[in-house]
Amino acid sequence: MPAEAPTILATSGGYALNPEGRRRLDLAPLVHYAVELSGVTGRRPRICHLGTAGGDQRSFAAELDEAARAAGFDLSHLHLFSMPNVEDVEGHLLAQDAVWVGGGSVANLLAVWRVHGLDEIFPRVWNAGVVLAGVSAGSICWHLGGTTDSFGPELRAVTNGLALLPYGNGVHYDSEARRRPLVHRLVAAGVLPLTYCTDDGVGLVYRGTELVEAVTERPGAAAYVVRRNEQGGAAEERIEPRRLSPR
User: Which structural domain range is residue 202 located in?
Assistant: First the structure.
């Protein structure tokens, strides 16, 4: 069942430690909200996870399988290492209700996706109504670019995102101290355009290319928009998110 309009949920969250210890991870409210945005009813939701940014780690994929079973989701994985694990990549993605892209190296993710034509496939999947979502690298990738440690310990700009969204994106805004000042410098210098940022646990919901709301699974966390001002600097505005219900 496609979403009512092309939809992206770009986040700095989505996973939680399982409190009972029966498995390591649970899918946190942001992942559940990605499914809700798809509008699926009457059957188990279908989600495809892409772990490209982390090198398609099979051990992490297995942990997500356990979390998805507990949540009542049918989870598949699109692995690209060492070759695509499905014959028809586009057909597989179009059959999903939502796509969830994990964190890691956004620079490597973008390079590998382009090798396999995902830069051309994802716009069609998005326009077909499959919800595109993800965390960290899986948030930046949908935008024009953002800040990344893909190249080394010092954060740098990445500016070759898929650009489904014509904005910059800042992730882990409250937990990594160097992120905020770099976003401000890049926006002031014109390296990044208007840029939306998320504290850990916060997600940005876009319908088409319009930001329609910010949501959070963590109290006190927020989203932000950073603009270049008339003096050639950067101005930041806080966006209060709506709290998602615990799962």
Answer: 7-243
Distances (CA, A) of 158 to 65, 71, 105, 127, 168: 31, 34, 11, 25, 9
- Scan for tokens 């009512």, then name that residue: 4
Distance CA(114)–CA(98), nearest Å, equals 21
Q: State if pTM tops 0.85.
A: yes
The pLDDT of 67-87, averaged and rounded, is 97
- Provide the 3-class DSSP secondary structure of residue 222: coil
pLDDT tens-digit readout, 147-175: 999 999 999 999 999 999 999 999 999 99
The one catalytic residue among 105, 136, 139, 150: 136
Rg over alpha carbons for the chain, rounded to the nearest Å, is 17
Q: For residues 85 and 87, give the distance between their C-alpha atoms in angstroms, rounded to a whole number.
A: 7
- Say whether 79 is catalytic: no
The pLDDT tens digits for 107-144 are 999 999 999 999 999 999 999 999 999 999 999 999 99
The total domain count for the chain is 1
The enclosing domain of 47 has a CATH number of: 3.40.50.880
Q: What DSSP string runs through 42-96?
A: SS--EEEEE-GGGT--HHHHHHHHHHHHHHT-EEEE---SSS-SSS-HHHHHHT-
Residue 33 lies in a domain: yes
**CB of 11 within 8 A of CB of 134?**
yes
Based on the residue annotation, tell me whether 76 is a catalytic residue of this protein.
Answer: no
Catalytic residue among 49, 92, 172, 184: 172
